[in-house]
Amino acid sequence: MKKITANFHLVAVLAGSLFLYLAFPTSNASIDGYTYAASVKYGEELFHPHHLLYNLQGYALHRAVSSFFDEADALYFMIGLNGIYAFLILVVLLFCLRKMGAEKRKVPWLLMIAAFSFGPWRFATENETYILPILLSVTASYFWINGLQNRKGSQFALSGFFAALAILFHQLHIFWWLGLLAGCLLLKGPGEVKRAVVFTAPALIIPLAYLLALHHLGLELSLAQLQQYALHEYMRGNASAGIGYMSFVLTPISLFRSFFQVHGYVWKMLLIEKAFWIPAIISLFLAIAGLFFLLKRKWQLNRTFLPVAEIHLLILLLTLVFAFLSYGNAEFLAGIPVILVILMACFKYVSTRGLAAIGGALLVWNFWFGIWPLYHFGMQQDEMIARYMMSSPESVFILEDPVRPASIMYYQSHTAPLSAFRCERIDSSEIRLMVEEASVSGKAVFSNCGGQPQVMSRAALLAAEGSAGVLSDFETEVADSAQSFNGWHFLYTVRNRQ
């Protein structure tokens, strides 16, 4: 009877995860989400150094599917792919847990923690690059665990191949690769060097893939060009790194957000609709109960899987340090819940009730305060600005964030605005000159500076000073407005004072 119950729970978690991943795609796609979808839609910019093969695989699969069916919307096609990849993470993680001898009754709840933590779930419903490399890295861990048990070189070679392939889909996964390599070197018994060589050899696909990308782009095939291209995001400053007080503030918040969604709109949901307090209280009760049961029992490390625990702890720490150096970037922590589940499987006497309660808390909270709001509500109104950009491409746009509406415009029309500027990067004299030049040529100047609702978020904390006073020296008139869940958004026409 217990076996039947455990199997039912397992099927329910897997089937429920797949349904929730595919049924509730975000309606608030990110800048990158629109940009990558445009690359897939138009077959352009298929190689990005930081995540070299993501757009290419999306383009290839989109073309393949479109050759048999009506052409699918590229954005939602890519989101659907990520939902399937996230489901496959759970399948491979299931193989890992079974290989590690995890108790059958605990497996569904361990998978539930990985499935419904906000980090993986969020990106399973978005067109971002983080889910597929996690799938590849977990597959690398699976073969490494196989190699630990049978000491076959082929298993370490397969582990190295998938770990290297993950790096080609996001460079962040160099840390997963390094952790597994360290495990090969530190694994007790003869053949440490041989294991490390066998594991490392498939990594030759990384420079080979970058060289092929250089050839495709018509760039020089040299070591200097290879280095410059591979590290493009860091050399250009697009991937910022450093240590500041915000690193200490945002890293713990981002780590918590890897499990439970925290955002300014959550408090607003609780204020405007009392019914949202029901899932909030239920999830809080489940989280407290789960922690009580988990901490009540003394966990005992399964010494057989000490190497697995050590290397995945190292991977977790390396990822945390990198996120800290990236000002607590929550996106880089998306794989933390998956790593934690592998770590938890290395222990005995972990409370089944505790795991189930935590899994339930994650499911309830993150669905109602993470996935459903992003699916059901429009949190921004950049589509309104994108419509103006498309209908009046010659106009000048001075915006709090010009990139997202420009990305929407490019995805929808394959064109980009000619003149779009960020509010805090220009001063009154520059705006005055723009308005004068636009007036002479019969163009309009539009701006939303100071016309957006303010919501507490990581982006808001890292943003420069507000833009409320940018237009104080000018005449403004409301050209259009739209309401999102966060409030009213205004687009103004801007003129010089007479």
State the main characteristics.
498 residues; alpha/beta; five-stranded mixed β-sheet; 7 strands
Describe the structure concisely:
This protein is of the alpha/beta class and 498 residues long.
Can you describe what's shown?
Helix content is 62%, strand content 7%. The protein has 498 residues and is an alpha/beta fold. Helix 21 (403-413) links the parallel strand 3 (396-399) and strand 4 (419-422). Helix 5 (107-116) runs parallel beside helix 19.
Largest sheet: 5 strands, mixed
For the largest beta sheet, what order do the strands appear in spatially? Answer: 4-3-5-7-6
Structural class: alpha/beta
- What's the rounded overall pLDDT mean? 91
DSSP E strands, number:
7
Using only C-alpha atoms, the radius of gyration works out to 25 Å
Percent helix, as a range, is 55-70%
Gross morphology: globular
* Strand percent estimate: 5-15%
Low-confidence stretches: none
The tally of helices reads: 23
In N-to-C order, the SSE pattern is: HHHHHHHHHHHHHHHHEHHEHHEHEHEHEE
Distance between the termini: 83 Å
